[in-house]
Design brief:
The protein has a domain of 49 residues. The chain has 4 helices and no strands. Helix 1 crosses helix 4. The chain is elongated, with a radius of gyration of 20 Å.
């Protein structure tokens, strides 16, 4: 099963999972962020980290990171955890649903 290339056979299943997982998105959002201000601060922190990686890409020698960049790491990691949680939840459910449809689809939906 894992030696084959992944095949995207069930686009309607993916659309249904994206819509049906709205409670998962809300749960993860409320778990990781205390409000909209906290969410937007995480977006700002991710942009600060992206900017500093672009700016100090060719830095010669080792220096301490500025305090602003160090303080931006935790909110950026929370945003990353939110995005990865949402994507992994939908991907795992799609993988399981595609397996069920490939295994039991002819029994459930005869032609």
């Amino acid at each position: 099963m894992h030696d084959q290339a992944p095949v995207f056979e069930h686009p309607l299943l993916l659309i249904a999972l994206v819509l049906l997982n709205i409670p998962l998105y809300v749960f993860l959002w409320r778990t990781l962020f205390s409000g909209w201000q906290d969410f937007f601060n995480s977006l700002l922190s991710a942009s600060i980290i992206g900017y500093s990686l672009d700016r100090y890409q060719h830095r010669v020698g080792w220096k301490w990171a500025p305090e602003r960049e160090v303080n931006a790491l935790y909110p950026a990691f929370r945003l990353l955890l939110f995005v990865l949680g949402v994507l992994s939840g939908v991907a795992a459910e799609y993988h399981f649903g595609a397996w069920v449809l490939s295994r039991f689809g002819p029994l459930l939906f005869p032609r």
